[in-house]
Amino acid sequence: MDLRTFLMLLHLCEGIGNANELRVAAFLRIYQRLPTKNELTQLLKLAPEKSHKLIAQLECAELVEQLRANLQVSQVVTILDQDYPLKLRESFRPPAVLFYQGKLALLKKPYLAIVGARQADAYALAALTKLLKPVLAKGIVTISGLAKGVDALCHQLTLAANQSTIGVIGTGLDSAYPRQNRNLQTKVAKTGLLLSEYPLGAPPLCHHFPERNRIIAGLCDSILVVEARHHSGSLITANLALQNNRNVLAVPGKITSDISCGCNELIAAGAKLVSQPDDILAEFANQLI
């Protein structure tokens, strides 16, 4: 078995965890061989019973069938691969394995993450309509999470401009959450890039979405927040981006609006206020030369 396949199978094991995957991936990269059972047990940092159970999963034919099923409908990039995106590799807890549909080459372009409120209003639509067209015309790729609200607006406006967008989801690639975004997700996969850390059949569990957000924060060059509540998931994503040394930008909102208070707080804390497309383009000046 080659190293890459071993890592993919390990990723499918129940209870493996990102930290354990990264330790094993580091071993594979350094030693260029598979670990022995004893070495794998030491790497996993699990209780003996859990470790033995996980190693037994690796030897199960059903796991190989599960991987084969995933590879029939998607492609895979692992942290061992040369085309794994460098920014993500260097980010906080990078995923060891990503399933994808679409154009992986988009990850070599400059990209802007756009996040915000699920209950986005007409102001978010007006702001993104004003800001995005000149940005997209420069070849900047948008990234968002295919949720309702600002995420969906980001993808829709990018596609309407015949430009490329990347969707990072918190389910398997065979699922859409919310369901009303199924057609939008299909379009993103066909014309851009659809990414997920999760294999086929993975449901939209609550903890999947903060994990998805860390990938968005790790992939982007800059992140733009458009309408966000206090203590919202969008602010968590912005903070993760900041930890990864990314530029954090925010669209200011009404002081009377609950869904704008998060953006106003970001600006007060030092995020760049965005009111014109040039405010965004300035962050990509070195990449657009």
TrEMBL record:
Report the superkingdom from the record.
Bacteria
Which positions fall inside the Smf/DprA SLOG domain?
A: 75-284
**Gene Ontology BP annotations:** DNA-mediated transformation
Q: Which family does it belong to?
A: Belongs to the DprA/Smf family.
Query: Which protein are we looking at?
Result: DNA-protecting protein DprA
Q: Which species expresses this protein natively? A: Ligilactobacillus agilis
